[in-house]
Amino acid sequence: MRLQWQVFFDYVRNHSRSFWLQGRGMLLALGLLMVPRPAMAAERGDLAGYSNLFENGISSSVIDTYLTVYGMGELTPVPYNVAVYRVSYWTLDAISQDVVLASGALQIPLANGVPLSSPGPLLMYAHGTESYRWNVPSCPHNSPTGPYSQDLPLNSKTVEALPFSSAGYCVFAPDYAGLGFDTNSLITPYLIADREPIAVIDGLRASRDLAAQINLPLSDQIFLTGYSQGGHVCLATHRMIEQEYADEFRITAAAPGSAPANLSGSMTEAFKDHLQGGTAFAAFAMAAYQPRYHLWNDFNEVFLPAYTNIPYLFYGATVPLATIAAQLPATAQTLFTTAVIQQATNPASLFAMTIASNNVYQWRPYCPIELFYAGGDVTVPPSNSLVAYAAMQALGADVSITNVGDTLNHGTGFGKIQAGILRYFNQYRDAVAVVSPADLDGDGRVDLIGVMGSSWYVWFSASQYLVPCGPYDLGISGLPATGDIDGDGLADLISVVGSSWYVWFSTSQYLVRSGPYDLGISGLPATGDIDGDGLADLISVVGSSWYVWFSTSQYLVRSGPYDLGISGTPVTGDIDGDGLADLISVVGANWYVWFSTSQYLVPCGPYDLGISGTPATGDIDGDGLADLISVVGANWYVWFSTSQYLVPCGPYTLKMP
User: Fold this and answer.
1) pLDDT at position 5, please?
2) Rounded-to-integer distance, Cα 283 and Cα 293, Å
């Protein structure tokens, strides 16, 4: 098989040689083909270059016209013009671990010809199935060379992201590995769940770098969405970020549209001729899977003799999907061998198990997620969203689902789905994100700290508990945490910027702090006095593990790290009133508590608290017990802790804006 596989690659290289030469020549002419850097110099996510494609952006009136044509007229008139930047960055090859050049677009909302002055959220939009290199977001007219003008037709991949950018989101739209300016990858990793996200995550990194270079303010909010294959990319990226990159990205909300989440079911239907366009999608997937998984000796085992050339049309990304589809027969039986059809429909076969390994619904998102679909879709059947919803709900996720209409299909339902996703995201963009409450003014009651955009605000608690006073701007940004590190009775403010933790020590003036000081720690942050010495200890979540650094009287010198043996989203608070911060882990939508003991590193638990939502804790009523605060959508709720520990009283709504 190894010899035959080498012959396969030789065939691809020989048949693609003219493309590689033409592509490299074109990129050199554009000044975008980077001279390969030493392996250690080019790192994933590094920004390689950028250019503003439209001199004056795309006007709101032009966007209105496109959105109306694409079935999104309900979103017009849009409030903003949009600039489109081509972003070039370094990522991994679609198959190997080689670092290669990739591309995408960053769409930026404009007001009076300039980017918005207030920090905006970063949204990732993943486009649908595409096999042609230049029909991508970074090439709005399907050409790498331009000229670019709003008066020329915009491709669909550009238009798909416009409803979000014209509403005030900064939108990163990846081309994907193997498309756009990635001329090194053999093929885009179509429906391969552990490879699709790589170029997306690296593109988010590069987009942040580009924003910093052009002085574009971004908030800490990140939204993920995509349509059709892009919905699969959205889910795969979301899962990978929460499982492997949680210390770098915190997702605010996600909303895949018409996503083939249950790929096993969809591919089975495709091989049974139950899907519109099923033969094209199946052929594309098999062309992508063979270099990744080596499932067959050659394509003679897969395609009937008249069609063994079909998979090679996907290599090099030179042929549009419609052109390939036009060469295919209408049924799977006249395109594929009987053996491969049997493999695809037999769950025990290697091929079927490989497909199943790329399902993207059997996991628990930690942030809110809504699944959108059209009830009449015969390209990506509704069962994909329904199966994903049931699985995620059973696992305790904060998940919802929307059918935009039983009479709408994959094409006619697109506009309704995009509009629904935008409305869904807006409720989180405009909400106050929770920060762990803390006593900033030393009155014995915790004050409520929230993040709006990228700014921190405080509401000082009053004796009425549910009517806090504020908000006041704290003048800090970054991923937030709080805790009394220096033992003066005032909570100090910890901000995580990039991978570094910084502390501002609170003073008696409340809104005037000393700092920032670099704490020399990284990871997802939490704090709590675990050892009962009066100093807040620092808890860092790296991957799925919690580590603690015990604070000392030297404040900036800590003892640790020690592995706590706990996973999940971290929160702390003294629920049982013993003077030790208890450890609360949020797994899926469920809150669990480990009660701290005098042994510090041997907590007792877990116990299910019976609460869901985005978590925080703090003693709001001053009884010495940390109360439990849950944020659901834009609403904050409090459960007051009682002497029974596991029977909190509530919920009560906190009056926040």
Assistant:
1) 37
2) 15
Cβ 136 vs Cβ 53: under 8 Å: no
Contact 230, 136 (CB under 8 A): no
| Interatomic CA distance for residues 384 and 228, integer angstroms | 11
Tokens of 31: 């000044």
Residue 421's region, left for phi above 0, alpha for psi from -120 to 50, else beta, is alpha
Taking residue 585's Cβ as centre, other Cβ atoms within 10 Å add up to: 21
Region of residue 654 (phi > 0: left; psi between -120 and 50: alpha; otherwise: beta): beta
Q: Which residues contact 550 (CB under 8 A, 6 or more apart)?
A: 530, 531, 533, 537, 558, 559, 560, 562, 600
Q: Give me 233's structure tokens.
A: 């990319």
Question: Is residue 338 scored above 90 in pLDDT?
Answer: yes
Place of tokens 């992508």: 288
> Which residue bears the tokens 């990506």?
380
Closest to 202 in 3D by CA, of 87, 120, 52: 87
Q: Residues 6 or more apart from 383 whose CB is under 8 A from it?
A: 262, 265
Per-residue confidence at 35, pLDDT binned at 50, 70, 90?
Answer: very low
Listed in order, strand segments (DSSP E) in 474-620 are 479-483, 492-497, 500-506, 513-518, 524-528, 537-542, 545-550, 559-563, 569-573, 582-587, 590-595, 604-608, 614-618
Q: Kindly report the average pLDDT of the chain as a whole number.
A: 83
Centre a 10 Å sphere on the Cβ of residue 565 and count the other Cβ atoms it contains.
Answer: 11
Phi and psi for 587 in degrees, rounded to 5?
-120, 115
Residues shown for the chain:
657
What's at 467, amino acid-wise? Answer: V
Residue 158 phi/psi, 5° resolution?
Answer: -75, -45
619-652: pLDDT as tens digits: 767 777 777 777 665 566 777 777 665 556 656 6
Nearest of 395, 344, 296, 379 to residue 387 by alpha carbon: 395
pLDDT tens, position by position, 216-238? 999 889 999 999 999 999 999 99
* CA 155/CA 130 separation, integer angstroms: 12
Q: Which residue spans within 498-544 are E strands per DSSP? A: 500-506, 513-518, 524-528, 537-542
Query: Is the separation of the CB atoms in 592 and 537 below 8 Å?
Result: no
Confidence of residue 21 (pLDDT cuts 50, 70, 90): very low
Question: How large is the C-alpha radius of gyration of the chain?
Answer: 26
Q: Against a cut of 0.85, is the pTM above it?
A: no
CA distance 474 to 454: 11
